[in-house]
Amino acid sequence: MSGQSQRLTVVPTVTMLGVMKARLVGATRGHALLKKKSDALTVQFRQILKKIVTTKESMGDVMKASSFALTEAKYVAGENIKHIVLENVQTASLKVRSRQENIAGVKLPKFEYFTEGDTKNALTGLARGGQQVQLCRAAYIKAIELLVELASLQTSFLTLDEAIKTTNRRVNALENVVKPRLENTITYIKGELDELEREDFFRLKKIQGYKKREMDRQLASAKKFADGQVAEKISLQKGISISSAQNLLSAEGGKDEDIIF
């Protein structure tokens, strides 16, 4: 029952056998390609995972340094530095843009930071604590850059994880369901074709035997008729009965021509 459930319901013909073989070849090639794709995605997945671990380890030190820089700037320039910075900011100098990277047919989102224009932050704290404010700004810019990189890695990580799961499901389906079902179907069709061939051979042998028996019967009937004709001629020539003539023919071994002439 398990073998029957694992094969397709098809008509066992030579044409269908060719179709099933072609489908099996296609499934084998697809399985090989998907396996290569899964391996490539897995390699990229592990590389991204290593980068995430490294970035998160450095993120702690960078955030700690930026927090200390902010505390030092507030200590030197005063608590009102926040309002001064907000007043001097018109547009963002550090921006983020996104693009897509193709890895084995999977589009991974990538985030990049770039600097556009200048702000008046350079004048912030010019009266006092200007150097410390600039150090704080540089520390937070570095933190933002790490955050953008980490966001890009995390997004790519989740996208790759989902793509690998989908690809592995397809690989397992081809390997454990589609290919065995096609192979069982091909085996079933071959068995049915062999059985049909044996049936045809047996039918031909039976027909040959029937024809041979029919020919033998016709030959025997023709011989019997010919013997009857010869016996009748001998009976007329020698003036004996037909049964005696037949016995005479049987005794002479069918050499009726010598008897007649």
TrEMBL record:
<dbReference type="GO" id="GO:0046961">
    <property type="term" value="F:proton-transporting ATPase activity, rotational mechanism"/>
</dbReference>
<keyword id="KW-0406">Ion transport</keyword>
<dbReference type="Pfam" id="PF01813">
    <property type="entry name" value="ATP-synt_D"/>
</dbReference>
<comment type="similarity">
    <text>Belongs to the V-ATPase D subunit family.</text>
</comment>
<keyword id="KW-0813">Transport</keyword>
<dbReference type="InterPro" id="IPR002699">
    <property type="entry name" value="V_ATPase_D"/>
</dbReference>
<protein>
    <recommendedName>
        <fullName>V-type proton ATPase subunit D</fullName>
    </recommendedName>
</protein>
